[in-house]
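Hi R.,

Here's the chain you asked about this morning:
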Amino acid sequence: MTAHIPTAGLIGVVCGDVMGLPYEFRGTRTKDYHFELKLRDFSDDTILTVAIARWLMGERTREALRQYLLEYAQRFKDKNVWGRGFMAWVESGGTLDRKGVASNGAAMRVTPIGYASDDLQEVLRLAELSARVTHDSDEAARGAQAVAAAVFLARTGHSKAEVRSYTEQTFGYDLSRTVDDIRKDYQFEILCDRCVPESIICWLQSDTYEETVRNAVSLGGDADTMAAIAGGIAAATPGMEVPAALAEPCFHLLPDDFVRIIWQFENFVVSLQSKS
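And here is the predicted structure, written out as tokens:
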């Protein structure tokens, strides 16, 4: 392991985002590609995941979260990575009505919530709160909760079979499909109900972090977001940490304050666990 480079936790989102970004709108439809040659940038998945982590370390109110999301989106508004609807919300100062919005932006950023409590019900509450600030729909809330719960269950030692059963029973997702079957006719999708279960399946049907990300990108969909979601779950799974050779170049793409927040969040999680 390379010194000072995390290989578990939020780095799973960062690496999935970075490795998937070159393939957004350019679906590979294959697991055989050389993402290590294209580790050049991060997107809104990483930016807003860091915003959520920062929020969780302070006052966990709706208004505090709104301010962090606005702050980080405004800071990076010139990056060509934002959805038009979300940026309209940002430009409105967070006042634009987002009722009914069901896109995957609610799910891509919630991995930190899976670490933020040792109480699953609290994780679900925080995930729904985090979604409805910008994506106020049952579908978006369900997607955010499913991802946060998968991270929570994975990091607390539950088996993939247990995560699958819980997710299907609680959220109504069909996780019985295979990655190969999905890939045959999958199209670019941004709705939570058409991205989140597929992302979870990419993790369920893999043995390593790298295979998880390759599965997600190979579907030919919203590659960076699906790889960020699946990668976040994988990095929370004991034995599926990010290889240091992948974590290091992705980590070094981040601004210095992002690096500090990721390390602070890791220490914050350790302190929470020591108190429980």
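One quick note: The two ends are 28 Å apart (CA to CA).

Cheers,
M.
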